[in-house]
Amino acid sequence: MGQVPPAPPTLPGAGMFPNMFPLPTGQPFGGLPMMPIQAMTQQATRHARRVYVGGLSPTANEQSVATFFSQVMAAVGGNTAGPGDAVVNVYINHEKKFAFVEMRSVEEASNAMSLDGIIFEGAPVKVRRPSDYNPSLAATLGPSQPSSNLNLAAVGLTPGASGGLEGPDRIFVGGLPYYFTESQVRELLESFGALKGFDLVKDRETGNSKGYAFCVYQDLSVTDIACAALNGIKMGDKTLTVRRANQGTMQPKPEQENVLLHAQQQIAFQRIMLQPGVMATTVVCLTQVVTEDELRDDEEYEDIMEDMRQEGGKFGALTNVVIPRPSPNGEPVPGLGKVFLKYLDTDGSSKARIGMNGRKFGGNEVVAVFYPEDKFEQGDYGA
């Protein structure tokens, strides 16, 4: 009486979840507290009730993960243990962006395996068995495969929703503005090469875009280049999330850097074209026309200026030509590598954009887009 009893010893294998099942102290036996039958059952089945969830966003927390997966399990009809939440506990490793989500039953954990690739906080997550999962032992505790009656369509995981695109090189493209058409998204992605497969996920009832897509490139070596170049780009009021659908983002190899820079340049101009309601302006911006080395030499620079005046003048009255040059001290120069043609009216600029876009110049295909007049007048050539 009056003495504080010793704390119960930590169970083997429970080091990562010390407070998951606080066990009440029972009658002492051999100096150890006895475990209630329910706690013993929970401990024995835990490996089969836990689910690994990888690729979480930095803002994810235990509550948001628990609430999300409980709601999703209810939506697909995966709650087989009765009413209430399927998730009983969550542990998150914020540094490595993964979580262990513990379900209340073995069968519900198996049903959760069907949720692999589900979109959580704007990006797909991996749903797997944890490393301590014992298949042979789990088979004696309950179903080891998801139910075939789950309504996966309720959470956007309809079979074939990703257009049959599977494998490690499948790319998830999230954060797409809803007004982007299928052809516009394709055009953006094809900056890096031909697509082997593509699917813009749409609402089954309305046919409207859900704001994300999946794709696979014919040349798999550009997969990581596309992810690195597109991820984080702002499109309208949205920011793109682009990465391998089943893996974390991988960095391009050194030998891929030139391809990456080239593609990023094209994307920058497509961003202007893909804005809703783009109107013709009196300024046309050309890329892939000149190189930095050509612009360093004074005589060569003047020749290029004259060529641009002659070529651009074929489409209408030019009022100005601007070609940013490299800085002598090596500092970054906004708009370097671009050519800006300012016309008297939009009739001339529209003809120039159509006439010069896609033309070959020095072996490169010219990209011509309208450029905001206010930015041009302010000397802002880096948009």
From TrEMBL:
**CDD domains given in the database record:** RRM1_U2AF65, RRM2_U2AF65, RRM3_U2AF65
Against Gene3D superfamilies, the record matches this protein to:
3.30.70.330
InterPro entries linked:
Nucleotide-bd_a/b_plait_sf, RBD_domain_sf, RRM_dom, U2AF_lg
Which parts of the chain are coiled coil? none
* Database matches in SMART domains: RRM
Q: Tell me, what's a Pfam family for it?
A: RRM_1
Residues in domain RRM? Answer: 49-132, 169-247
Recite the UniProt keywords alphabetically: mRNA processing, mRNA splicing, Nucleus, Repeat, RNA-binding
Protein's job: Necessary for the splicing of pre-mRNA.
Member of which family?
Belongs to the splicing factor SR family.
- PANTHER family per the UniProt record, alphabetical: RNA-BINDING PROTEIN
NCBIfam families in the record: U2AF_lg (TIGR01642)
Record's protein name: Splicing factor U2af large subunit
